[in-house]
Amino acid sequence: MENWEVVIGLEIHTQLATKSKIFSGAATAYGAAPNSQACAVDLGFPGVLPVLNQEAVRMAVIFGMAIEAHIAPYSVFARKNYFYPDLPKGYQISQMDLPIVGIGHLDIDVDGETKRIGITRAHLEEDAGKSLHENFQGLSGIDLNRAGTPLLEIVSEPDMRSAKEAVAYMRKLHELVRYLGICDGNMQEGSFRCDANVSVRPKGQAEFGTRAEIKNINSFKFVEKAINHEVERQIELIESGGRVVQETRLYDSVKDETRSMRSKEEANDYRYFPDPDLLPVIISEEFKAQIKAQLPELPVAKKQRFKEVYGLDEDNATQLTSSRPLADYFEATVAASGCDAKLCANWITGDLSAALNKAGLEISDSPVNYPRLAGLLARISDETISGKIAKQVFEEMWQHPVSADDVINAKGLRQISDSGAIESIIDGIMAANMDQVEQYRSGKDKVFGFFVGQVMREMQGKANPAEVNKRLMAKLKG
Amino acid sequence: MHTKTIIELAQGLRAGDFSSVELTQTFLNRIKQYDTLNAYITVTEDLALQTAQAADLKLATGEANLLTGIPIAQKDIFCTQGVKTSCGSKMLDNFLAPYNATVIEKFNTAGAVMLGKLNMDEFAMGSSNENSYYGAVKNPWDLNAVPGGSSGGSAAAVAAGLAVCATGTDTGGSIRQPASHCGITGLKPTYGRVSRYGMIAYASSLDQGGPMTRSAEDAAIVLQAMAGFDPKDSTSVDCAVPDYLAGLNTSLQGLSIGLPKEFFGEGLAPDVAAVIEAAIKEYQKLGAIIKEISIPNLNLAIPAYYVIASAECSANLSRFDGVRFGYRCKDPVDLTDLYVRSRGEAFGKEVKRRILMGTYALSAGYYDAYYLKAQKVRRLIAEDFKRALQEVDVIMGPVAPSVAFGIGEKINNPIEMYLSDIYTIAINLAGLPAMSVPAGFAQHKPVGLHIIGNYFAEQRLLNIAHQYQKITDWHQKSPKGFE
């Protein structure tokens, strides 16, 4: 293994989040009854013609700008010809020679190092339908709801040198397309899927080895496993005197292995040629300027800003900028609460994220929205409640649509900072526990915690902890 | 009634001389009487009479336009909702289109009465109408001759008075050549002038629908209804449609007519040449100036066309796979069998020939030599015409090198058949508008004059044809037995 270098390039299909299909007016929503979202155009009926969805073009251009790519002023749709029952026209409309997005790049972080991964191109195309092979008594069913869904196929350079780098690139891209609002990123539903080109070469060799392409991997975990498995297979093959053949392979996640689908010889001749039904796509400088003005702040810039403006540490800044809705939630909470940004960050990455994870919810579906969380944090900030009581209040707010103040008032959780009240409690506890007082005074500092616990219990946790500490210290010292 | 112009019929309908129902019935009767011509694939009798009734109501309330209540027939390449749309093929013999082509919608909106769907070469591939699954169409001028193709049913129906007017489509001459062979007026508009939505594609970059009528005046009315930008067709052009009728009477004084020397060389039958020369003389009487010009790359048009059209059709016809609509073979054993037999059993010989040629031309290793080269030739030809049309206003010549040939005469010689489209094909490659106008007879069969104009010059072409038809009566002749 240590004598070999791994070379990986990824082709990632991102489903663009347009409302209608790339060449027809049919809806793109996932999960509808089979063939209920396919119109005459999607079904490839005689005489129908494609009309390009401008929103898909806009999204492709946004992506191109986000990876600082060359945006083609003139790009062309081509027909990719092959027969399959879920491909209604007998050809897929894609882009071949002149893709809409040219050379760009994406920076990834692996083991504390930043590495730049080249992106060769990104092109627009339509998705095919789905063939269903179960429950049809030996026949196949065809669902064409997905036929015509817009895809942006993003092709990387063979710049990755490990499965880990490939996963980091895929995650970064996944984060980016969701940030840009051009893809929902739902991998179970196939909105973001990956083909991996993998080869190995002896360290120091300039030429690439023969590659195998692993098709249709739809999770980060499987990408890593599939690549690692394929690398092992290729090295073992070469070391035992064999030769890697150029082929398409399929990853079987159950058996954790890849197996051959078809060799280069069996590959289709797709007979690409420009689609005469569609005009070339012309992107003007004005259009580009317009898109640039609408471009959202990208993750790298946002993270930097969160560190500088809010004083967040690396971990919090990374976590909060991992998705745009989360970052927006954080900034809205800071603004609404007027609290210290670090307090907000700790709560959002801590208690709120934990609760969301447990419930399997996204930030946008959080039962506690930002104004309510801000209300809670404000009460911590002004010392109405302690952080510990706040957890209890949050729990209540998660279950019921109530404000922090409602909970605090209804349950009488307001923190007691009145030194007189605290002192009289302390006096009572000291009187009842003279042995422990003696221990403390003879130098057993640990006993201090015992007194804090007793006081807090007596006051049902509502005492201001700082005040308790201060008063207890003074009294115990005598 | 079947020889009247659209304007005469519209006046008759308004004057109460006859109703649209009566007019429609007259044509339905004639269609039955002359069904040996085989011009129609489907006659929509009930639908026609219903539409005629509705048209009569519109006429009574004054909401009508020129085409309201006028019986028209549609080439069976245009999708008609709920009505069989066969494209002349066994593949679509069972196909009821689920929607209307834009052109059909436009005629429906105008209140025209559809009599039925017209015979054609299978998927518009052919120059004789002998490639139809529904059998050959006979030429009303000579029942042993072909009507031309692919819009052979349209040309025969209009010539024989089985419809007031018809639609056709022209990919390499499929409106003009049958119009010429049947002695009617046919216009292929500029590529992009008429929507292709719902017109079953043969070669998408060349296909264009247009009117096939008894006169230029009728063609102006029918084109007016068909033309215009369609958001459903990305290749349709968003430019204003002029009032074609209003332009008919412009003077031709000073019109410069170019005669490409390549149109009058070897291969042109002398009797056809004589008719064309006589027609040119008529134009000189109208004040036109004649100039010899050259289209140097004309001889490359046929090979370039058969590469491009075949390449496009090889992809366009892939959707006919037996999966979702159309013909499906009996009891397929697996997917390959389903494909191979459904397509093998339902496509005719010429369609298969062109799919194979196109597939070959697009294959890895051949693409540059065939497809790319043909595209370069296409640009050269377009430039030839562009240059010529800077010198002259219009170009004239023959539509076809000879008059209508006999049924069966060329069917086993595809190359000879292809060569009969020499003058028309180049126009499609350039995307220009062109007409065929009846100009006389040779061997008792009609000869059409070819008039080619600049992009979107349909109004000028109609004007030029109309002025000629005002001083000649070739377009008013009816074939014997169909008077």
Structure annotation, total helices of chain A: 15
Q: How many distinct beta strands of chain A?
A: 15
Summarize the biggest pleated sheet of chain B.
Answer: 11 strands, mixed
Biggest sheet, spatial arrangement of strands of chain B: 1-3-2-4-6-5-10-11-9-7-8
Subunit structure (chain B): Heterotrimer of A, B and C subunits.
Protein name (chain B): Glutamyl-tRNA(Gln) amidotransferase subunit A
EC number (chain B): 6.3.5.7
GO molecular function (chain B): ATP binding; glutaminyl-tRNA synthase (glutamine-hydrolyzing) activity; transferase activity
Salient structural properties:
heterodimer, A: 478 residues, Arc Repressor Mutant, subunit A, 3 domains, 8-stranded mixed β-sheet, 3-stranded antiparallel β-sheet, 40% helix, B: alpha/beta, 11-stranded mixed β-sheet, nucleotide-binding (chain B)
Please explain how this structure is put together:
The complex is a heterodimer of chains A (478) and B (483). Chain A has 478 residues and is α+β, with helices and mostly antiparallel strands. In chain A, α7 (324-337) crosses α9, α9 packs antiparallel against α10 and α12 packs across α14 (447-458). Chain A has 3 domains: 4-287, no CATH class; 297-411, no CATH class; 419-477, Arc Repressor Mutant, subunit A (Orthogonal Bundle). Chain A contains 15 helices and 15 strands. Chain A is 40% helix and 19% strand. Chain B contains 15 helices and 11 strands. In chain B, β2, α4 and β3 form a beta-alpha-beta unit. By secondary structure, chain B is an alpha/beta fold. Chain B has one domain (1-483): Amidase signature (AS) enzymes. At the A-B interface, loops of A face α9 of B.
